[in-house]
Write a structure and sequence with these properties.
The chain is 69% helix and 2% strand. It is built from 13 helices and three strands. It has a three-stranded antiparallel sheet. The radius of gyration is 24 Å and the shape is globular. Pfam families: zf-MYND.
Length: 342
């Protein structure tokens, strides 16, 4: 175990609780300084299961606060909130990589800290319930996923005015659960509700993308193909807009975090593979998808992948005379990627 043990005498009035069993704790991780344990066995167990992965992320919030004043109480609450956020972000990152056992461990900790910060009935617990549901769906524990989703639905019903982000995550996760249990009509309803939440924005394409798997299971390839086309067009338009904005401003802001980039890459590659395996493949559509992947990785500063997909798009576009605008965009992207790799 890399993190050493620090025996603590709990400051008066401050209750340190074991990360695993919530009993009074006298041991502390000396790297992050924000997790505590009642004995070395529980510290070792937590280290090997999840803490080794999140400990470096918690170092930034390790500054100890003195207790006994209103200001110190605020600082303590701020630290608790930051740890909750770190765990949520880490769990989301593992969702995108389909590391569902890691998601489960991080989400359980996220829920625990959310309860500490916000209470056991707060709307802030919904993201934790959804992450736990996603982890269990990925692990095949569908009844457990249903239980967490029921808690999420009930909390949302009691909390009017929930954010679009929460509603979209709820509908997508419910849709995934119903699709996994063979309830295809209910799955499509939830994915359609997800699309309605984000109507008019590129992120609604995720709902359409998830519908495709359901329609393929229902042996409706025509509908699936048309939805993939809608998703591909939506992403291409959005990425072109981002690239154009960077060209005009001369600066490249961070457009996607790691989880969003991985999710978008998986989605676009899946559609590209589907397009290339069709009985009547469409080179123009494949070129557009390869161009989208090149733009995505350019925005994520991975110039090697951007160059690879850009060259693929360049090959696909050859012989398509009507695609002059797309050809010019591909050419400009290749020049940009090659310049950064020199």
């Amino acid at each position: 175990m890399s993190a050493t043990i620090n025996l603590l005498a709990n400051p008066k009035g401050v209750k340190k609780l074991c990360e695993l069993c919530q009993k009074p704790a006298k041991r502390q991780c000396t790297k992050c300084l924000v997790t505590f344990y009642c004995n070395c066995d529980h510290q070792q167990t937590d280290w090997t299961s999840i803490h080794e992965k999140v400990c470096p992320l918690l170092v930034s919030i390790r500054a100890p606060a003195s207790f006994g004043t209103l200001q110190s109480d605020r600082e303590h609450h701020h630290k608790e909130t930051l740890k909750k956020k770190v765990l949520e972000i880490e769990a989301q990152r593992w969702v995108s990589k389909k590391r569902f056992q890691d998601v489960l461990l991080a989400a359980l900790l996220f829920r625990r800290w959310a309860i500490r910060v916000n209470g056991s009935c707060a709307a802030e617990l919904v993201p934790a319930y959804l992450l736990l549901a996603q982890a269990n769906i990925g692990l095949g524990s569908l009844s457990q996923a249903h239980e967490y989703l029921s808690k999420a639905e009930w909390t949302v019903m009691k909390t009017p005015g929930c954010s679009h982000t929460v509603l979209h995550q709820l509908h997508r996760t419910l849709g995934r659960l119903h699709a996994a249990t063979g309830k295809y009509t209910s799955a499509l309803t939830h994915f359609a509700n997800d699309v309605n939440v984000w109507f008019g924005q590129y992120v609604m394409s995720g709902g359409y993308f998830l519908m495709v798997d359901v329609f393929l299971k229902q042996n409706k390839p025509g509908i699936a193909h048309s939805l993939y086309t809608e998703v591909a067009n939506s992403w291409h338009a959005h990425l072109c807009k981002l690239i154009d904005g960077i060209s005009r401003s001369g600066t490249q802001p961070e457009c996607f975090d790691e989880a969003q980039c991985v999710e978008a890459d998986q989605m676009l590659r899946c559609i590209l593979e589907f397009e290339e395996q069709c009985v009547n493949p469409r080179p123009d559509q494949s070129a557009m998808l390869a161009h989208s992947l090149a733009m995505l990785w350019l925005l994520c500063n991975n110039y090697t992948k951007a160059l690879g997909y850009g060259k693929k798009a360049e090959v696909l576009i050859q012989g398509l005379n009507e695609q002059n605008t797309l050809r010019e965009s591909i050419h400009n992207l290749l020049q940009h990627a090659e310049k950064h790799l020199e």
